[in-house]
What does this fold into?
Amino acid sequence: MASKYPMFTADHTGAASSSLVYEKYESTEGNVFKDDAIDVKSYIQIRHAVAMAPNSAEAEGKMEIPGEIVNSKAYRTATETGKKIGRTILKGMRKSELAGLCYTDFSIADVFVSTSGKAKLKGVRRIKFCMTQQFNNYGAVCAIMTELFTLNGQIPAEIQRLINLMRTRFDLRFMYHLHGSLVPIARSTLLYKTLYEQLEISTMDKARKDVILLGLPLLSQWKGLVATNWLLKCTFDHKQKEYNDGLGRYTRPPLPLQATARQRLDRKLLEAQDFLDYLRNRGAHRMEYLGHFYTRSRKKYTADGSDRACEVRFAEVTCYLQEQLSDQIQQMNTSEIV
It folds into this structure.
C-alpha cells in the first residue's frame, strides 16, 4: 500500500517533492483502487495555502509579482490552492443548508483534498438542519482556516476578515463562500466592479455612504502602495486631456493652510472616492502600456500581472465592500461571478 503522505527528496529531507502520492488499496476481489483525496495537511505541504510575495514560485509557497519596484517588501496572501480549499468547504455547507441539511461535528482531521483541489469531508455525516449545529460547524471552519492560512504566525488580512465575519455575523453566512478573500484571481476584478457599481447606484442616504467611504481599509496608505509597482503606478500617473492643471486623475491640489474641519472631511471623502475609482479604472482601460515593460526574463507584463499586483495589496477592500453592501448582495446573483 502506497503512503498517502507526500514523499520527500533524499537531498532535502525537510522539503516535499513536487508530486502528491495518493493512497492505493486492494479489494478482496484483487482490484486495485486509488483514493481520489488525501488529507489537507499533507496536501498543503506541497500545494501551499498561503504565500509570501514576491520571491519565487507559487508552488514553493511563494509568489511572483510583476512590476515590483521595492522587492524587499513582501505581501502575505492566499494562494489559488488555499482559496479553492476554503471556498469548497463553505460552498458545501451552504448547499447542504439550502437542502435542509447540515454536517455533524468535524475538524481539520476530516478535511481531505481531491485531485482537482476541492475539499472533501470524510467520515462526516449530513443530518437534518440544526441552527446550533451549523453555528458550531462554522466555528470549526474558523479553526481550520486559521491553521491552514497561518504563515509565520500571521494570517493574510483578507482571510482574517472572513474568519472574523464567520465569528461575528452568522446572519451573513449566505455570502461566506462568495467572500472576496476566496474569489479566484481571474474573477476578482469583475467582483470588485460589480460591488463598485452597486455602491454607485445605491439609494442609501449620503450619510451612510460617507461612513462606508471613510471606513475603507488602506485609505491613508493606498497611494504609497501603488507607487511601489510599475504596473499600478502607470495607471495612477496617466493624465487625460481634461486634467489640464498638470495634475493626474488621482492627485488633488493641497488644502488651504487654515482649512476648516468641513473642508478636511470633504477632501477625505474625495480621496476615498478616488481610491475606489482607481481600483475600478485600473482594469477597465489603458492597459496597452503593459506591453512596453519587460521582466528580467524578457517576458511581457500582462493584465493578469496587474491583477496580481493589485490583489496582494488591496484584496481587503473588496471584502470590506461586500460586508457593507450585504443587503444588496443578498438580492444579487453573485454566485455567477465567483
